[in-house]
Amino acid sequence: MSKIAILTDTSANLPAETMAAYNIHTVPHNIQWGEQSFLDNVDITATEFYERLETDPLIPTTSQITMMTFLQAFEKLAETNDGILVPLISGGVSGTVDSARTAAAEFDKVPVEIVDTRSTAGGLALAVLAAGEALTAGKSLAEAAAVVRTVSDNLHVYFVVDTLKYLHRGGRIGGASRYLGTMLSIKPILMLNGTIDAVERVRGKKKALQRLVAIVAEKTQGEPVAVSVFHAKAAETAVSVLEQAKAAMQVEQDYTFELSPVLGTHAGPGTVGIACYPVSCIR
Q1: 152 vs 268: which has the higher pLDDT
Q2: Given a cut of 90, is residue 16 above it in pLDDT?
Q3: How many domains is the chain built from?
Q4: With b meaning 16 or more CB within 10 Å and e meaning fewer, what string describes 16-42?
Q5: How far is C-alpha 131 from the geometric centre of its chain's CA atoms?
Q6: Do 211 and 254 have their domain in common?
Q7: 26 in helix, strand or coil?
Q8: Which domain holds residue 212?
Q9: What is the per-residue pLDDT across 28-78, written as a single tens digit (0 to 9) for each?
Q10: Is 233 in the same domain as 146?
C-alpha cells in the first residue's frame, strides 16, 4: 500500500496528536510584527499572539507561504512517502495555494495533489481530517483528493467577529465592507466560501451567536454533520456554541479549534465560528 502524506498550512491549526495519527504535516504562514518576523505556530503561539495583539500598538501583517517553502517540504516528505496531498487555505484570501501549485509543477519525485479548499480554520481542518480518514481507510492519493474536494464543495463556514477592524486593516474584509462603521453592539455574521461575505447583522454578541447556530442548522436540514467550532481567545464561548450546535443539529463528529496567529491577525480576539458539512457527501 502506498504511503501518502498530507501537507497543509498552519491555518488549520490541528492538534499535534491528530497530525501524528494521520501523517499530517504543515507549512507555516509568515507574520511580520514591527521589526520582528514569526513563523505561524512555530515562533509564536496563539496564547502569546493574542496577549500581545491586545496591548501592542503595532499592527502585525501576514504574507503567503513561498514556493521555496513548499518545494523544501515536498523534498522532505518525498523521502518517506509515495505521494503528497496538499489541502490549503482558500485562494480567495491567500496566495498560498498559488505558491503550492507553482512548486508542484517543478517537482516530480512523487505525485502531488493540490486542493484549494476555499476555506480556512475549522473548514480547512474538517477537509484535512476527512483526507486523513480516507487515506487510513486505504484510499489512493487521487481518491483522497476527491474526498477533500467534495468536502470543500459542501462546507458551510460562518463566523462572528467582535469588530471588523482587523479584517479591514488586513485587506481580507471582502463583502463585509458594507458593515464598516456600524455600532459596536451590532455584530456581523460573516461567511467564507472562497472569499468572505456578510450575511446579516444582529444586535448583541449572544444573539449573534444564537443566530449563527440557527443559520448553520438551516443549511444542514437535519442531515448528520461533522462540525468544528473555531475561536480566537474565546474558548468558553466556543464550548457554549458547540453545545448549541449539538442541540440544533445531528452532530456525528465535533471538534473545537483555536485560530492560529495568522488568522487571528485578520479576525481579531473574540471571533467565534462554525464549520460543518453533511457526512453523507463522502459516504
Answers
A1: 152
A2: yes
A3: 2
A4: eeebeebbbbbbbbbbebeeeebbbbe
A5: 14
A6: yes
A7: strand
A8: 156-282
A9: 999 999 999 999 999 999 999 999 998 898 989 999 999 999 999 999 999
A10: no
